[in-house]
């Protein structure tokens, strides 16, 4: 027998090197190479036992019948929305998130919901025992008899169970706990994760079963395991939020079957995750009486406008170097806005600490939030509250100009619906007609904002 071939895989980007080096030649990360045996591609198919099922043939594209692909309703409105309307047969989804954020809860909830329609669901639990999963399920709702649990980490046993049970939906929690005996390395190592995922993906594709894999996130915020995992799957979902807040956001970082612009919002309750249908009401509902440093931004997530409260606290720096911190807001963007305020409005904040917070712990990235952030900073610095029926939607450019933002009409409608009376928008270009009850105030430059809002 020929000597087994070895290679060194970067755990960051998955690039293969013939020998060990300190720095990955591809992504330049240091100390990320891990040794593993080279697996011939044919072995993967043998492993999944699906080689004989897969007989693709060459045919004209227009003859491919897409009606063959009915989507499986996941029984969860927010998840369906993010996926673009349910799961595609054979679609492989990777759900990533920090520990304790609610990945297992979400997947179990989905399993139970799909199970109630009578479809067979197989939940592979590598982290929790059947009893633990049952205890959690008790809190989440009715448990249909078609929901099966299999506490297992050995990939061959998992594949056997899949071939035997032929479920309509498979959940693997988590991919990092899986173990392939004929693959080098401990469970959770790059090779193990990649090959386990490959074997499961081959099964999913060949049998047309939607498959969900839960993946952990590293300290740096990327999915543990090589980037190749992200290439292998069809959809990468990220479950994020602040663990100290009840709100969670589900978004697609990659989606072969739909848009990545959609966002699902959940609230963690005593009975699992509840979808939040009207996020603006919830996010603004926490707002008290008018305080200085608070401004309402009309953001857009996917195609949904969401009103969020932006809070700024500007105070004299105690230490030599002023602190800048932003929860839910990009720090570099905050620094940029402070620089613009200093240069274009002569608002010197160099001696002050600036803290910024988007209420609800949500990370909502939309350049349209800039204007609200600027207003909140001005309000806190001058210790003057803003009118709490005024909201903002505008991007701030480096020369202090306020730029128009997309989908202004939807934003205006949502603002009006929530009882806003005034909305500051970019004065460049024309804006759509405002809905009843809402006055639109166009501003062209950051230096004008101060005059308009106080
Ligand atoms: P979990 O799904 O175990 O997180 P992950 O799989 O991402 O590590 O969720 C853990 C948290 O969710 C835990 O701290 C308790 C909380 N939780 C609730 O608040 N309500 C519930 O009904 C459930 C099941 C969990
Ligand atoms: Mg878990």
If you had to describe this structure to a student in words, what would you say it looks like?
It is globular and about 75 Å long. The mean pLDDT is 87. Helix 1 (41-48) crosses helix 6 (190-207) and helix 10 packs across helix 12. The protein has 454 residues and is α/β, with parallel strands linked by helices. Strands 6-5-7-8-4-9-10-11-12 form a 9-stranded mixed sheet, sandwiched between helices. The chain has 12 helices and 21 strands. The chain folds into 3 domains: 1-39; 73-275, Rossmann fold, CATH 3.40.50.300; 282-453, Ribosomal Protein S5, domain 2. It has helices at residues 41-48, 77-83, 103-116, 130-140, 155-165, 190-207, 228-232, 279-285, 331-345, 370-381, 408-417, 446-453, and strands at 6-10, 16-17, 33-37, 92-97, 121-125, 147-151, 169-173, 211-216, 235-240, 247-255, 263-269, 272-275, 294-301, 304-316, 324-327, 352-358, 390-393, 395-396, 402-403, 422-426, 439-443. 28% of the residues lie in helices and 25% in strands. Bound molecules: thymidine-5'-diphosphate (TYD) and magnesium ion.
């Amino acid at each position: 027998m020929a000597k087994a071939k070895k290679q060194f895989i970067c755990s960051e980007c998955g690039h293969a090197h013939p020998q060990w080096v300190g720095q990955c030649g591809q992504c330049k990360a240091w100390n990320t190479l891990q040794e593993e045996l080279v697996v011939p591609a044919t072995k993967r198919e043998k492993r999944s036992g699906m080689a004989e099922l897969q007989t693709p043939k060459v045919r004209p594209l227009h003859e491919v019948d897409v009606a063959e692909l009915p989507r499986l309703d996941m029984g969860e409105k927010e998840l369906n929305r993010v996926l673009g309307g349910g799961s595609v047969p054979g679609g492989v989804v990777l759900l990533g998130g920090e520990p304790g954020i609610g990945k297992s809860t979400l997947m179990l909830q989905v399993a139970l919901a799909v199970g109630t329609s009578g479809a067979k669901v197989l939940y592979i639990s590598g982290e929790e025992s059947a009893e633990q999963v049952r205890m959690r399920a008790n809190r989440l709702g009715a448990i249909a008899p078609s929901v099966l649990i299999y506490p297992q980490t050995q990939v061959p046993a998992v594949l056997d169970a899949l071939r035997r049970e032929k479920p309509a939906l498979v959940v693997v929690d988590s991919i990092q706990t899986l173990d392939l005996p004929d693959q080098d390395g401990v469970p959770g190592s790059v090779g193990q994760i990649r090959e386990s995922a490959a074997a499961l993906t081959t099964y999913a594709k060949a049998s047309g079963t939607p498959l969900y894999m839960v993946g952990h996130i590293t300290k740096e915020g990327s999915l543990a395991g090589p980037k190749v995992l992200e290439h292998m799957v069809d959809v990468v979902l990220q479950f994020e939020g602040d663990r100290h807040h009840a709100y969670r956001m589900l978004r697609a970082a990659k989606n072969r079957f739909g848009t990545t612009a959609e966002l699902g919002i959940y609230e963690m309750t005593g009975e699992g995750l509840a979808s939040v249908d009207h996020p603006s009401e919830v996010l603004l509902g926490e707002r008290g009486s008018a305080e200085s440093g608070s401004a309402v931004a009309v953001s857009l997530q996917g195609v949904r406008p969401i009103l969020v409260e932006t809070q700024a606290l500007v105070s004299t720096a105690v230490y030599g170097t002023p602190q800048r911190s932003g929860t839910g807001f990009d720090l570099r963007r905050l620094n940029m806005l402070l620089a613009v305020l200093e240069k274009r409005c002569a608002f010197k904040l160099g001696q002050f600490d600036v803290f910024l917070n988007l209420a609800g712990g949500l990370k909502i990235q939309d350049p349209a939030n800039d204007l609200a952030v600027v207003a909140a900073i001005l309000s806190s610095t001058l210790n003057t509250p803003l009118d709490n029926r005024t909201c903002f939607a505008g991007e701030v450019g480096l020369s202090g100009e306020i730029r128009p933002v997309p989908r202004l009409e939807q934003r205006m409608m949502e603002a009006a619906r929530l009882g806003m009376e005034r909305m500051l928008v970019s004065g460049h270009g024309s804006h759509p007609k405002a809905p009843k009850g809402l006055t639109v105030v166009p501003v062209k430059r950051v230096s004008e904002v101060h005059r308009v809002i106080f």
